[in-house]
Amino acid sequence: MKRLNILFFPNYAMPLLITLILLSGCTGSTGSLCTPTDRRSGSFCYDGINFGKNEDPLFRRGVRDGCETAKGYFRKAYSLSASSASYRRGWEAGRARCRMATPSRP
Q: E strands within the chain?
């Protein structure tokens, strides 16, 4: 008597399904991409990533420096990092979100 597969999947379907589920977690994790509407509404965009409300210049500089760091070109203004919470928040946000959007280097 042939054993009945409870899930009615061929042998390759379950590993394929698991792989697709795991890979789908890799998309969209960088946050929202920047659109022309975002820019017109006052959002701050850098490298195509929308960082939300257009904050002060130190936050924007932190995002730029953090993104460059995520790309492999370490950049950080230590004096600003020590004295400005806005720069620190921008640097952390830039490094984290740009790291997710930057392909890994060999």
A: 43-46, 49-53
Lookup: tokens for 87:
């720069």
Contact 93, 63 (CB under 8 A): yes
Task: Tell me the C-alpha distance between 37 and 30, whole Å.
Answer: 19
Q: Six-digit token pair at 25?
A: 């977690």
pLDDT band per the 50, 70, 90 thresholds, residue 27: very low
Distance of alpha carbon 74 from alpha carbon 51, whole angstroms = 20
Give the confidence band of 10 by pLDDT, cuts at 50, 70, 90: low
The torsion angle over the Cα atoms of residues 26, 31, 34 and 40, rounded to 10 degrees, is 160
